Inverse folding.
């Protein structure tokens, strides 16, 4: 049983070889951007969760490595294409692929990454092979649906809190959930265990995304690492904003809408005013309650896993780490 | 044993239901463009070849329908993304998806189509399931590689005839080859038969693409359906142009290069002058010889198929139809 750091390091070491192999494939301008995207890092949360779920039921973690590559490849593919769609210039402090190369390169290399994730999945040995393919494909499709809902919401006047939760479920939570389930299925765990891990991951993913929304408005700038209020400036329909619009009386609702339609010239003024409305409506507490609700659901799934407590302890630690909890 | 027309009609009938089901999936702006792309038609050559290969070894052609959908979906996905990359406005006389909707919609709906093709493949029942996945994924990746080589060639000063043949092999021939092989594998045909069908399809695909190049310069406008010389105007490095550059003496080579770099203001003048050089160098005959060479190779594979002659006759007819041969 490895801990998070050990699995992360094992994954990185193996991934480096894959990146080098990818980088030497031809044509250069198809595969170099793939290697570039993979090597710019990130926390590798999904593949590490996959490996950890595998290790709950089998010790030969190398067998789960191809599936872990598949998940990481697919995740990075979605980021690459999302960056074109959002016209983002930077990803993890590096120029995005469509900026560094070109739009066409970013489209085609992304397409290749989506297929390369299936190439990795193809080399997974497990009697649950078909089920693994099925859950991977269903998840991949849900992520596309989530991205489309996210884009739709930008132009949609009324978005409900429930619609938003469904969207982040598709865009973020299902891949975390599927990573854990695929890890378990690769180790030939029972269907029940695999489903519990899926639900654990889904709820954890929801809490994780809500935490992201929360920190953007109420985070500590120095530890959060980016400026507070980015979502407010960008008029993003986050959980906070949608909850505020749901609870606001007509007067406050009008104020929020006017800040979005005719923002004050001063950036900080808009942030301060919106935050003050959030405060009046107790949005911080409500968001953190919702986060906690998902976290507790995740915990319940974790408790029901049919694995010795000391064996599954690392999974709880990683969940707490994702939520930045110390308990 | 159905003939081409019957299989085409069976496929269309089944595809219509799939299109209707796709069109009712949510979110609308993810799935509507998928349905739009599929219903604009085309000749359905690949899925019909797949069904025909299946029927050589098993009569229950319905079992091959999901794989036929997968191939058609993937083919249309590549066209959709290629159209963004080529900035094409029309496809089969309809506005392309990125024109009718938007670039972002075209990127994301294309991504979904690539995954939807795996969804169809997932529902294929065959003991050769893993091999089918493997050949499908390898083929998908080769098509991306072919598209990248094609884009590279636009900016590459020297392209050899061999490089060009390799590129069209990846971009066009492998999908025709894989369609046939997957049809055979779905019907549990032997590896040897499946490989013969692959080679048959590959060589047929090569001949088919060379015929396309040939017709663009030497076709009959009324039966070809589009204006002669489009490739010449667009400076496309086709087999004809590359063969001409290979054979040309310094003087003719300079002329060809100058037509590409500083084309005459009059469109027809450029076409006439390039065609006259093609004539001097016997490019039409050389192209049609190469086409015939591939066709004969395909024929040899067909002859070696371990299937009764009257059973495999339809496959030869479809090959002849693709080459517009009457024999």
């Amino acid at each position: 049983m490895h801990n998070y750091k050990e699995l992360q390091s094992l994954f990185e070491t193996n991934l480096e070889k894959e990146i080098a192999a990818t980088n030497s494939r031809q044509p250069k301008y198809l595969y170099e951007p793939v290697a570039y995207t993979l090597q710019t890092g990130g926390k590798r949360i999904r593949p590490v969760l996959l490996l950890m779920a595998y290790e709950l039921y089998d010790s030969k973690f190398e067998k789960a490595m191809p599936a872990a590559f598949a998940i990481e490849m697919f995740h990075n593919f979605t980021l690459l294409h999302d960056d074109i769609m959002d016209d983002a210039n930077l990803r993890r402090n590096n120029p995005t692929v469509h900026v560094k190369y070109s739009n066409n390169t970013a489209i085609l290399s992304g397409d290749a990454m989506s297929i390369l994730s299936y190439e990795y999945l193809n080399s997974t040995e497990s009697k649950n092979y078909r089920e693994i393919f099925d859950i991977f494909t269903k998840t991949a499709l849900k992520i596309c649906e989530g991205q489309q809902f996210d884009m739709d919401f930008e132009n949609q006047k009324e978005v409900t809190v429930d619609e938003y939760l469904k969207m982040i479920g598709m865009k973020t939570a299902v891949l975390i959930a599927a990573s854990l389930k695929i890890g378990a299925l690769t180790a030939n765990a029972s269907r029940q265990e695999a489903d519990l891990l899926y639900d654990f991951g889904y709820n954890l993913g929801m809490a994780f995304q809500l935490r992201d929304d929360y920190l953007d408005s109420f985070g500590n700038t120095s530890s959060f690492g980016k400026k507070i209020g980015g979502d407010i400036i960008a008029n993003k329909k986050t959980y906070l904003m949608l909850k505020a619009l749901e609870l606001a009386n007509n007067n406050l609702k009008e104020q929020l809408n006017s800040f979005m339609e005719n923002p004050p010239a001063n950036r900080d003024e808009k942030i301060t005013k919106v935050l003050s409305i959030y405060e009046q409506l107790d949005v911080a507490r409500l968001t953190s309650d919702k986060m906690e609700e998902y976290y507790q659901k995740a915990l319940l799934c974790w408790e029901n896993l049919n694995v010795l407590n000391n064996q599954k302890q690392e999974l709880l630690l990683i969940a707490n780490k994702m939520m930045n909890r110390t308990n």
Summary: DSSP finds 16 helices and two strands in chain A. The longest strand of chain A covers residues 90-91.
